Amino acid sequence: MTQEEQDFAGAEVVSDARRVVGYLVRPESDEYIAIMDVLEGSVTDLTAAEVTAALSAAGVRLDTRVVETRLNALHALGAVSPRSDHSNARRYVEILARNWRYTASPAGRHVQRFYRQVLAGTATVREIPIASLNRIVTHLESLAASLGEREPVIGGLDRACVDAVGAVFTSHDDLDAALVGAEDALMALADRFDLDEERTGDLKGLLVDYATRVAAELDSGSARAAAALTVLVRWFGPLSQASVDASQARDLIAAGALTASRGGRTEDWEGLRAWFDVRTGRAARFSLRLVRTLPSMHANLRRLHSSAGTASSRTRALSLARAVLTPEVGVQIFQAAVGDHAWRKLYGQADEDEAGRNPSWRGGPQVPVPTLLRTTGRSGPRGRGGAPRDDTAVRARVAAARAQRQAEHSAAVAAVLAAVPGQLLDEAAARVALAALMAAARAGATGPSRTGTSGGLACTLVHTGTTAGTIQAPTWRVLVPDRIPLFHQPGRRPSRTAMEAVAGATATDDLTVHATLRITPHLGSSHPNHPRSHQAPATSLAQEGAA
After folding, report:
1. Are 470 and 535 in contact (CB under 8 A)?
2. Higher pLDDT, 349 or 430
């Protein structure tokens, strides 16, 4: 017994026939089914050797030991019953398992007959039963015509209405199963782009058949059925009750021991209405599936048409692949096809009658080659690529420019740190100070001050409530109302000179979210350090805003 059969035999035992069905889904299901066919068709019980002989006569060749293993597994599943008569045993070998006689158990017989009559005989559904759709539409329209004008009454339906309900749901089951099978067949073919000619033709035939005839019938029939069901919405309850009352098991259904057949519940009618919905019903989804299958069919057809030509690249590649697989000369063919041969080099043919038919590589006439082809040929796999460009001088110039900018920035930071609040700065130093000032203006306040850092320079805005700080540049200046900017190195306190310049100011808590800056033109060349630098004149403002 294999490990899989031991694990399966040691599984939890159930009391019904669910264990017996297990041999239908095993990897060796073909062998199990063939053995069960022999046992189920035999009048008497058989030994393992007799089962092997019967299988050989049916065209299934299995070893006797394999048959014994399969019979033991079927016995563990409950599909067969072994018999051994120990009363007449005269030798030890007569009580061994290989001499037991096997027959199909009742559950095994039912499962095997169910497989042969139902499962094995189920063919792929391709034909959509339009007759079932016609019966559904006819019965629904007759019910709508006879019940549409009346008020719903429980028990007021005759036998004809009950028969119509049964016919509707019976035909619907047939139609729904056919549609599901057809859609599954379409999905199995539509999701692949490597179909052969036979399957591509099958897909094309399905699409042509369904799109030209079935789709139109389904759309029109679904619309008529949906209209009739809309009229019968009020009668869903009475129709369900009439279907239950007409059943011979109505007492068991009322007691909950049985479930009513289709049409005996209001939910069945609601589901039927959703099935025939014009926009989201089964027919609409099937039509949409047809549309979505068209690109797959076109892709397969184009691929087959392109590969059918004798001069296509794909055909040549396939021919080369088949030739390479030849055991005798496959290696030589591959080397000849991909080798670097002189006669495969690129050369041009000049318009000279005196030259020979095959000019030499060096002695032939010169032919101009386009620039793009010449560039591609130099960087291709047949020759050495061009040397990288020497950019040492450019790198040196870029590094020198970067060092100069860093030196200028460091000098500007040193000039700002050496100046006192309100002192005139050069253009570079003023811009560095303005960047640090804007970073501090955007920062959150902590008590009376807020601090920001930009480019290695820190700025602290001290809120006084009365004094306006400034940054003086040759052509412009920035006013900071109610605050004094103090510049210092990041992580350090302002210098003593800067602190002495604001010693007389009184600091108060800063309650605003952002500080306000005012950019104004310079007062003029005659006033480089105007005494009103700590005041905010209202007549000279050019730009104002919150940082």
Report:
1. no
2. 430
- The mean pLDDT value for 216-220 works out to 85
Burial pattern 529-547, b for ≥16 Cβ within 10 A else e, equals ebeebbebeeeeeeeeeee
Structure tokens at 531: 């005494």
Query: Any alpha helices (H) in 210-344, and if so which ranges?
Result: 215-231, 236-245, 250-255, 266-275, 282-308, 313-324, 330-338
What is the rounded CA–CA span in Å between residue 447 and residue 507?
9
Residues sharing a CB contact under 8 Å with residue 72, sequence separation 6 or more, in sequence order = 1, 5, 97
Residue of 294, 143, 130 lying closest to 220 (CA atoms): 130
| Angle 117-123-126 from CA coordinates, rounded to 5° | 150
What's this model's pTM, rounded to 2 decimal places? Answer: 0.41
DSSP bridge pairs for 520: 477
DSSP per-residue string spanning 1-56: --HHHHHHHTSPP-SSTTTGGGGGSSTTHHHHHHHHHHHHH-SS-EEHHHHHHHHH
**Cβ(47)–Cβ(137) below 8 Å:** no
148-172 mean pLDDT: 77
| Burial readout 94-120 (b: 16 or more C-beta within 10 A, e: otherwise) | eeeeeebbbbbbebbbebbeebeeeee
When pLDDT is averaged across residues 114-134 and rounded to a whole number, the result is 73
Rounded Cα gap, residues 9 and 73, in angstroms: 7
pLDDT given at position 531: 41
**Rounded to whole angstroms, how far apart are CA atoms 8 and 27?**
12
pLDDT digits (tens, 9 = 90+) for 25-53: 888 888 999 999 898 888 778 888 889 99
- CA Rg, the chain, in Å? 47
